[in-house]
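Quality-control log, excerpt.
Job 1 of 2 completed; input and output follow.
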Amino acid sequence: MRVRNYFIIALAVACGASCKKVVSIITPAPTSSLTVVNALDGSNGFLTTFWHDSAVATFYSTGTEINYASSTEYSVPSGTSPVLIYDLSDTAEPLFSGNLTFQPKAIYSLFVSGALTVHSVPDTLLVQDDPPYHPVGDSTVGIRFVNVSPDAGTISVDIKGNSPGSEVTSLGYQGVSAFKNYAATSAIPTPSVGYVFEFRVASTDSVLCTYTYRGNSIPRFKNVSLVVAGTVVGSGIRVFEVNNY
């Protein structure tokens, strides 16, 4: 009788062990942030994919179109990842195709610049971003300056009314400045005017283009890039904003 009881107890323990739930923890694959910037003069708009075997028709109908002087942010797998960019004028061959390496949870910007012609290959610039944090009690905006205009040469940046080069003394082609914080409150001397940034030819101080942030349009607590792009024979040299939130 005692042997039978031992057998029943052993059987119960075995059944209990076999009926336990197996809990497996699945860790999501790390990702990174990539902002693709269309600074290619003459572009008809970009389409971007991150798979070499993607059917063009698929992402053509579902992808986000990146017009000239604009940008789009993507979440991409960390590590080495393929990046393919097509212009809407020709979806048979990519403008850019390469394997890029991204650190986990890092932030990147990919600038595609130059001029769109039959024989030219666009220039690309991959930058790992380090946008500053803005506490709620600190009403500032972080601004950096990017020169991806092949015709602009070396430029300087100032705020109108200040001496040339007061913000950036020298920024060559594919040059990127560090983020700098600017006040985004009523402390701005003339809120109705705001900040008027002047981009000049560094060697002559002649103004190439300007960009204005009026007091009520400053992206408080944010980070942005002011990008100089374009060509003389194309649509001209201009500056546009990219969000680096």
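Job 2 of 2 completed; input and output follow.
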Amino acid sequence: MRILHELGGLTLADALSCIKSISKKRSEEVDARAEAFLKGAQKKHMTAQVAEELFALIRHFAEYGFNKAHATAYACLAYRTAYLKANYPMEFAAADLSCEMGDSERLKEDIRDCVQMGLTVLPPCVNEGAGDFTVCGEKAIRFGMIGVKNVGERTVEAILHAREAGGRFTSLQNFCDRVDSAAINRQAAESLIKAGALDSLPGNRAQKLAALEDALRSGARAQLDRRRGQKSLFGGDAGARAVETPLPQIPEWPPLEMGRHEKEALGLRLSFNPLDRYEAVLSQLATATSATLRSLNDGAPVIVGGEVIAIRPTITKGGHAMAHIEMEDPAGTIRGVVFPDCFEKYGGLLKEDAILFAVGAVDKSTERPGIKVQELIPIAEGPARLTSAVKLSLQRTALNNQVVDEIKALCQRHRGECAVLVEVVAPDQKRVLVKAGRELAVRPTEAFIAEMGRLVGEGHVQLSPRKPQAQSNGNGRARWSRGQF
């Protein structure tokens, strides 16, 4: 484009049109641009032969140069970001998170990256945070207040201005007294409390939310008195300090409710996520996640697991009940459709906050892949119903007759049909895998996994999922066959 512009006299707009025409092989348009280039080049004292040779090179390069130019640009960008991530991990992560503000799905993904890097993402804070994500001490990043729902730039600026002018906020009333009441409304203040942004002030979140209305009213009255220059009966400004609103004596929200409030305010949970308890089971038994569905073929059988976060019941033309659902797994969200036959069997399990395994087939009928659900299984029943084998990984040095006897006794107390595999790791890291006899086959319930974990060590009990098999239903689509696990 620069050559066409500077040597041939084409405008940059015409130069862009020219290379697009070349790449799309629109010969008539290219010939017209070539004629304009040749005339322009000769006006700049270039011979016709040289101008023709140069345009021939441009014509050839423009067909393939796009890929080379982009590969070079992205390689450069990849190198720079890799350097920053390796040498300034906290600053890089804070900047990356700030760029994704407002996109909760991308934020979840980036926060998982932070955890893998050994970094902690802290809730927003009116006494330490800023609008964007910021580095906060060693190995910690503070959530940006702009990312809180109902909190805009004007509100954040008012908070930062009040903090800069008068130091740290000391209480809920002090916060409402000092932050410009015209810049913060009840919705914004509620969201800040639910997000944990006022956790550095006395009291729990439930107390502060209950006292908020009175604190806002008292603070706004004090600010109005200050603006009017109102004097108190005993001298001084009547509005210099609002009367402290006492916090009611009520307990903090339960973890599940706190997580719901955080999700409402931030689009994600920071302090408590019910999926954390089932992280190991989900990672071992789910054959796909929200992040990997796109890479699977349409109709491929899958098992996904997560929390039900939305349910939209509907009625078919034939009068049968069905539902569209959305589930959240550790990687993001998954949409699903529960058809009438499945809804009739498992509809009772569909409740918001329920954590389930969904068995079905990949659905790529829309831009965002989902699943056609054919079976729903409560998370607690997942290990027993979806496991093909239990593998115990044991160090040879830790094995003795007593440990072996305890393992056998535990397996016999939980008799079932699931095979037990024992992997023995020698001191030189050589491994031997042994399949236990049928008399030691187990039913891998949640209780069994917990007991075995205590016996052989957390992380040494692994579940192998029963692999789903695709089976044609006659219309070219795969369907789930429970008998072919």
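Post-run check on job 2. The radius of gyration is 32 Å.
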